[in-house]
Amino acid sequence: MKKQTVCVVGLGYVGLPLLIRASERGYEALGYDLDKKKIELINKKKSPIKEKYIEDNLPKFHVRATTDEREIKKADIVLICVPTPVDKNYYPDLGPVRSATELVARNLKKGALIVLESTVNPGVSEEVVEPIFAAAGMKVGRDYFLAHCPERINPGDPKWNVTNIPRVVGSFSKTGLEKAQKFYESIVDAPIRPMKSIREAEAVKIVENSFRDINIAFVNELAKSFARMDIDVKDVILGAATKPFAFMAHFPSCGVGGHCIPVDPYYLIERAKKTGFDHKFLRTAREINNSMPEYAVDLLVEALNGIKLPMNGTSIGILGVAYKADVDDVRESPSIKIMELVKKQKSNLTVYDPYIPEKSTVKNLTDLLKKSKAIILVTDHREFKEIKPETFKKYGIEVIIDGKNCLDKVAIEKLGIIYRGIGR
Q: Measured between alpha carbons, how far is 168 from 206 in angstroms, rounded to an integer?
């Protein structure tokens, strides 16, 4: 029996691991992307992304990548894995999904299974994706099958990856659902849960990430409150976490980053408006979390004022550009906003991230410490967490804003350095 061909459209953190996994499980694996440099690297078996699963497995399996959209016609299964961002006003941008769908519709093999993996609000498959195929003269369930399986990926996670994270699928028809479920069961070593409708499947991912956003907003608000009452919010959360049921620990920080948590709630907020419903709770959570970069900079201003140093002209070091530890992903990183705010105060800014040298202004950590009077730790990379308090003292650091609450507050303060955490 001839191997089925899987084509992944969009070869980023979501699409490329799927492509590799499909090859591992015996499919002909074809990837499509507009980025020619990325395509060249993939075809040379070099990862364009600093992600362990990709770096470990891309050299082992045969995948082929292309910028030629006509190749999509060979695919029995097409996975659409393109971004779903928001604009500067936090309004959802479905442009990439529309463009990718039009691309697939132009090059569709009859009877193919199309799966949208991009995170979207409930209704996008019915209101945006299916009509594009219909306009091209194709009927869902007759000429092709359409399903949604919201991506689940956690870059940098040593345990959970594309091979073992449970998934959900939804479709327009029973046959489409069966096809999608069978495919994902063939590549994922975890349960695949069929949903009653494609709209339910779309809602699952939005709920997952909105849940996290709300809980993070709660502890971020607690951090601001407890700081005024001289209560260490980190200790309180660790204390609450000793309860073995009905509590899930979330921790405050200088901002929420990544492509999911700070983005997905807006898709539900805006879609719900069309039904006349206002998600007040989600809007409030987003406002709180969006305020955290400014809160971190305010802590720095206050601390510098305490030692009679102005922001203007003072050398400030930023530790980390990535949105999370030990990855090179800058999507929605709070570091971007923090750097903008520091620059606006006319400080002398120095930036270092060992995973993103192109956005660093120095070559190493030592160079940053030498040039800085105060620092803001934005990303809890291992290299930063391992800095000894004595090292800060050695290089004359007078103020530390610990945006991830990952440094030794007591040891730092014993050395006479001003320490400010988020709620500590």
A: 13
Give the neighbor-by-neighbor strand order of the sheet with 418-421: 348-352, 315-319, 374-377, 399-402, 418-421
> What's residue 2's pLDDT?
65
| Architecture of the 5-198 domain | 3-Layer(aba) Sandwich (3.40)
Closest Cα partner for 199 from 292, 139, 123? Answer: 123
The torsion angles phi and psi of 410, rounded to 5 degrees, stand at: -60, -45
Q: Is 128 exposed, middle or buried (0-12, 13-18, 19+ CB in 10 A)?
A: middle
Q: Is the pLDDT reported for residue 282 higher than 50?
A: yes
The DSSP line for 331-353 is TT-HHHHHHHHHHHTT-EEEEE-
Residue located via tokens 């040298």: 357
Q: In which residue ranges of the chain is CATH 3.40.50.720 found?
A: 5-198, 210-424
**Residue listed under structure tokens 């804003």:** 401
Given this model, what pLDDT does residue 249 score?
97
**Maximal C-alpha separation, the chain:** 76
The pair of structure tokens assigned to 372 is 């800085």
* Cα 9 to Cα 16: distance, rounded to the nearest angstrom: 9
The answer to pTM > 0.85 is: yes
Write the pLDDT tens digit of every residue in 198-257: 999 999 999 999 999 999 999 999 999 999 999 999 999 999 999 999 999 999 999 999
- The pLDDT, as a whole number, for residue 392 is 98
Q: Which of 396, 386, 388, 387 is nearest to 417 (CA)?
A: 396
DSSP class per residue in 38-73: HHHHHHTT--SS--HHHHHHTTTS--EEES-GGGGG
Catalytic residues: 260
What pLDDT, in 10s, does the model give residues 329-357? 999 999 999 999 999 999 999 999 999 99
Question: What is the DSSP annotation of 242-304?
Answer: TSSSS-------S---SSSTTTHHHHHHHHHHTTT---HHHHHHHHHHHTHHHHHHHHHHHHH
What is the fold of 210-424? Answer: Rossmann fold (3.40.50)
Q: Nearest-CA neighbor of 9 among 27, 28, 31, 29?
A: 31
> Is 90 a residue whose pLDDT tops 80?
yes
